[in-house]
Amino acid sequence: MLLAESGSLKSLTLSSIAETVEEAGEKYLLWELSGVSGPAAFMQEFAGTGEQPSMNRSLCIIEEVGQFRKKMRDGGPLEELKNTFIQIYDGKRVVRITKAGKLEVENPVISLFGISVAEIFLQEVRPEDMVSGEMQRQAIIICEPFDMSARRHAIMKINLARTKREWQRLAKSIVHSEYKVNSKTAKLFEGISKRLVMQFSDDIPDSFFLRIMWSFHRYALLYHLLLGKGHEQAICKDAYLYAERIITRILSDMARTFRLTLSSDTYKKLAQIEGWIEKHGKMPLPRDIYRNFRNINLREAEYLINLVRSDPRNSHLDAKPT
Q1: Which CATH number is correct for 2-142, 3.40.50, 1.10.10, 1.10.30, 3.10.450?
Q2: Where are the beta strands (DSSP E) in the chain?
Q3: For the chain, which residues make up each domain, given as ranges?
Q4: What pLDDT score was predicted for residue 24?
Q5: pTM for this one?
Q6: CA-to-CA separations, 258 to 63, 261, 263, 319, in angstroms, rounded
Q7: By three-state DSSP, how is residue 60 classified?
Q8: Tens digits of residue pLDDT in 115-160
Q9: pLDDT, tens digit, for every residue of 283-303?
Q10: Are 205 and 136 a contacting pair, CB within 8 Å?
């Protein structure tokens, strides 16, 4: 999700990406999600019906992603999409039963790209949104405002023909069904991970940090291919160094988002509750938290437990009196 101020060329960026994807050919699908009316309509387009092709393996664009996410809150018209997006992210089969029959997508893969005015996004996103399992699977980039006096932001026309050729070259360079990490890059990754833990562990809840770090290898593989090394099965060292830069930026901007939407005290208390759940394997009652953490009163405990419960990953946990 790309957040920026008004006048930062967000719409131009979005339209340029859309134009590039469309020019790349029919194999690459573009899906505008901003106007989707509900989960059923989403699934119909995702699975494809009749002459309508499946939108699986597409680039999904969401304008004003903050308003879109507002509709995904509990009770909102797009609430079910939170679980659907989690299933897609985890590569699980997505199924929906309708009056017309069963809609099903095997091996779901989509890329979500949302943009928003930063101020609007931060107004629309609530604390409970930030701690959801679905949000943990997203990446947030906060763009710095333009220096309008420097006049360095000239709009350049994208060379679509060249972009198409490069995209096709990249696709052809993937010659292995899987890519691997050798011992040297594994050691490099371990060292990078330790540095990032020291830098961000106090600013981001563990569950978020782990989710973002799991994406490290994906970014490394992407850079490996962009470096023209698709023929090499072992992901190269330079790819991991490039991946470190984007992961560091994502962690940094996620930490900024937390500071702007949650007080540091709040998400530290959330981390305490998550630790209790991990230890006991169930959802706590407010009095469980009050007994164990004197910095959390009963009213706070009830509110924070509801935030944690809003994460679909915790739906199986059962609170029993202790």
Answers
A1: 3.40.50
A2: 2-4, 29-32, 58-63, 94-98, 101-105, 110-117, 141-142
A3: 2-142, 173-257, 264-313
A4: 65
A5: 0.75
A6: 22, 5, 7, 27
A7: strand
A8: 988 888 877 777 666 766 777 788 889 887 666 555 444 555 667 7
A9: 999 999 999 998 888 877 887
A10: no
